[in-house]
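Hi Y.,

Following your request, here is the sequence exactly as I used it, all 73 residues.
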Amino acid sequence: MVQRRNISYATQTLEGTKAWDIFMSLVVTTRKLGISFFEFMRDRISQLGNIPSLGTLIREQSSLYSFDGSWLP
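Below is the corresponding structure, written out as tokens. Let me know if you'd prefer a different format.
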């Protein structure tokens, strides 16, 4: 990411920066969930719905681990 930013001199607009941040967040999230970012994007663009939403996948993964009550207010 740093090399790309240095080569392209960062984004040109605030909207570009936001888009870049969103896509990088999606890349990291899909990687942590063990699914392909490109397969996830293809599923969303084609509207097939074969891959559950990220929220659903995160809830499923979090149910596998016990966080006790430490995250509760």
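The chain has one domain: 2-63.

Thanks again,
Q.
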